[in-house]
Amino acid sequence: MSKTIIISNRLPLQLKIHDNSIETIPSVGGLATGMKSVHSGNNSIWIGWSGLTEGSYEQSLQPKINTALREHQCVGVALSKEDIDGFYYGFSNNTLWPLFHYFMEYTEFERSTWESYQEVNQKFADVVLDQIEDGDTVWVHDYQLLLLPKLIRKKRKNVSIGFFLHIPFPSYEVFRTIPCREELLEGILGSDLIGFHTYDYERHFLSSVQRILGHEISFNNVNLENRVVKVDSFPMGIDYDKFYNTAKFHNQQSNKERSEIQQEIDKHLADTNKAKLILSIDRLDYTKGIANRLRAFEYFLEKYPEFKGKARLVMLAVPSRSEVPQYQRLKNEIDQLVGRINGKFAEVSWTPIWYFYRSLPFDNLIDLYTSSEVALLTPIRDGMNLVAKEYIASKVDKKGVLILSEMTGASNEMSEALIINPNNFEEIADTLKYALEMPEAEQIKRNTALQKRLKRYNVEKWAKDFMQALESTKQVSKKYAVQ
Ligand code: ADQ
């Protein structure tokens, strides 16, 4: 019986070693949730790195680790610290991540990290080839594994391969600057189906394929000598019911049952002079436009001083890639900006910014979503941005205003939000004023339309649509085989 193999850089669980035993903590992230319908029963396996580098634990524990992974239908790819430095921090996050997000000034190209990227993609391929059989279906995820589809296809002709990119695909003019552009495109083209969050990313990819490799494109198909590769957009959704139902449950909880953070928020809301809360949540990453957002908020308070004491920015930044100097510099910049703005505007009874630099448990995240009148999300570039969708899904009473950067994939599907250019401080300041004063009836009207769409196109539907499209490419391949 044929099976499905999901492959991502990280496995959907975390491993913890306690003396002689292994604890597995399943991930609750969007991808793991979305894959539930695909990664279920005994008919699928998930291949990826476990998060433990070779040599960081006793070798005698390896059989136990393998067994623990097997219980979750997972198979680990063994990576050394050098692999992680070169492949992950190096080529993936110092070359591909900034380039694909149009941060060309941050993009480094080093032969050694490119070599490490090729070696690690080969390591993934070796594990996959060990597991795969004719007739199986493979779904490869994201920018760390761009070479993998071709490496699998080279050895296995009779399998279906899908690839999905979670970040933007840049325009041809940007993509062409990378020295290994042919190898990257050929790597992805090992697939039968290639998926992006938006139609724009799809067009950019097709344009690069045509102009760099010279392949013929018809509609959204790439015609290779002996195969057709289908390219399409699949905007990723969220687990809508989980956010909506948890928010509903929190609204019904008694005071005693409420989390510490919610009790603090309750105290704040009980204050008759309460300031409205403007929420922002992201990983601390330069693509998310956090520094821009702070400067725009500062400008807003200068332009509309009547909001001093009446509005407050609640900014949650999740530590991310904190070993990379670029990210450390960004953290310093943000610390300074928050300090400067708070120092400049604070009053005895009001501080303009509440800044949290940490990861919060899911329940606290929901509390923040439900308690904020406005969400201000200003990425400079973002493949999709799930926070925007989660904020709207958590608004059980349909009240709340989403301000969203036009540079996110999510803005394409969320036209009822207030869409802004993250570099235009004038526009952000005016939009913030508009959002804080928006009548409730307008909020409800906008959010009713947004929620309807998000509920229908949830993450499960996203995974199902992709798998169905991959299945239908098999028919096309068969036709080619006959001709
Ligand atoms: P990310 O860049 O990580 O994902 P995003 O889509 O916003 O960005 O997802 C972040 C996730 O982390 C959300 O589900 C959110 O709930 C969670 N999260 C954020 N802050 C948190 C906190 N403080 N504590 C706990 N959880 C927190 C990449 C791409 C995106 C794309 C996704 C999915 O960069 O563009 O939308 O993959 O494809």
UniProtKB/TrEMBL annotation:
Class of the enzyme per the UniProt entry, highest EC level: transferase
Q: What is its EC number?
A: 2.4.1.15
Q: Which GO terms describe its molecular function?
A: alpha,alpha-trehalose-phosphate synthase (UDP-forming) activity; trehalose-phosphatase activity
Per UniProt, the keywords (alphabetical) are: Glycosyltransferase, Transferase
Is Glycosyltransferase given among the entry's keywords?
A: yes
The keyword Transferase is annotated on this UniProt entry: yes
This chain belongs to the protein called Alpha,alpha-trehalose-phosphate synthase
Q: Which organism is it from?
A: Aquimarina brevivitae
Q: Which residues of the full protein are shown?
A: 1 to 483 of 738
